[in-house]
Design goal:
The chain has about 190 residues and is an alpha+beta fold. It is about 15% helix and about 45% strand. The protein has 2 domains: about 1-55; about 60-190. It contains 1 helix and 15 strands.
Length: about 190
Amino acid sequence: MKKILIAIFVVILLAGAVYLISAVISRNKQVSCTMEAKLCPDGSAVGRTGPNCEFTPCPNGYKNTAYEIESQLVKLTNGISGTTRYFGNEIIGDLNGDGVGDVAFLLTQNSGGSGTFYYVAVALKTVEGYQGTNAVFLGDRIAPQTTEIHNEEVIVNYADRKPDEPMTANPSVGVSKYFKVANSRLVEITK
């Protein structure tokens, strides 16, 4: 009986030691994670937190906003949500006539097949942060070039394939598409 009690006592001591060591490691990791900060677009700063020391998302930045893609609301966190990713080509300019800089940029969706679907989206700057619009489909496996804003219009320039070319062909045909924000929705316009 005495040997069993000693064995139980040793197991309890070992479990306590493991718990203390993991708590110290976790605490040290947490402290080192919160030492670094980054600036958000609104001027606020966020630090590293969580078990993997990832940055806390910026408050309601355009990469942390919801966008409507193919009739589905997709909420980005640091520019990612499942198969949807922030691609870039961002441009800042007033798109709704309020005198405040909005952001136009490209998103991609890749659901595991060979296709990579490109969309243009707009984040309208408001006093509360950013409000995402719907995203408009540009094409599959295109080659994005530039995104511009002129007179409250978004112009997306990219290369695509000829209509009779297979998807394996390199995009070689220059395309420019024009968009405008109307009633907080992004709509394509013809020129």
